[in-house]
Amino acid sequence: MKGTPVAPTSSDSTGRTTAERASGGVQSVERAFQLLEALADAGGVATLSELSTSSGLPMPTIHRLVRTLVQQGYVRQDATRRYTLGPRLIRLGETAGRLLGSWARPYLAELMEATGETANLAVLEGGEVVYVGQVQSRRSMRMFTEVGRRAQPHCTGVGKALLSQLPEEEARAVLGREPLPALTPHTVTDPLELMRRIAEARERGYVVDDQEQEIGVRCIALAVPGAPTPTALSVSGPEARIRALEAQADAASLVPVMQGIAARLGQVLAP
């Protein structure tokens, strides 16, 4: 059986191949990031064969790239000879998170001014919600979530908005099959029921946290379109005040305002 012929490659004066010149990138760098993404998708731990299967790259290429990433500290090998994301990525992630919050701050401030309530920005990392930006309400009674804090996605508005951006199977994998922990009597703990609500949120364009993480607190969240990684915007506050915002029927109602801000923020964050 004949194999598929491989087109010959040639290099220019910079050492880039014909394929690399055509794509405008460097193939080895693209593949290294492809491996890091595959490792992250696997929960941060995988064998070489698992990486080869998930990335589609040949084993010799996997060996070469992983060896380089290990040498640089971006990947490490554990005692069972599996590979994990390395500690040098922590600094990169923390710095990127701070920058993301900085870029988003004018948009969060605009949302806070429009609603009078605390505006938040969050991303999904390793199956957890990470808050990367916030502008607090000026009101004496307000919601406060520390930037950098992690939370579970099933009980937060931003978490459900983040899950709604994933393929269904990936969202199910994040939630798992077992009952989820209840933080309040309102927390949805059944993964199947939660997936049903997330599907509704996709259709509706936003999601609600109705005292599911904290009694007396309501949150409205939606996806930031165009962001390079699942990102969500939210406004949170005392239940009665958020319900009053939702009840407004004029052009300044909460969800259209949030959607407009999220769309413009997504354009800023788009790669």
UniProtKB/TrEMBL annotation:
InterPro entries, alphabetized: GAF-like_dom_sf (IPR029016), HTH_MetabolicPath_Reg (IPR050707), Tscrpt_reg_IclR_C (IPR014757), Tscrpt_reg_IclR_N (IPR005471), WH-like_DNA-bd_sf (IPR036388), WH_DNA-bd_sf (IPR036390)
Organism domain of life: Bacteria
Keywords, comma-separated and alphabetical: DNA-binding, Transcription, Transcription regulation
IclR-ED domain: residues covered: 88-271
Keyword Transcription regulation tagged: yes
Compositionally biased region (Polar residues): 7-17
HTH iclR-type domain ranges (all copies): 26-87
Coiled-coil portions: none
Spans annotated as Disordered: 1-25
Protein name (Swiss-Prot/TrEMBL): Allantoin degradation transcriptional regulator AllR
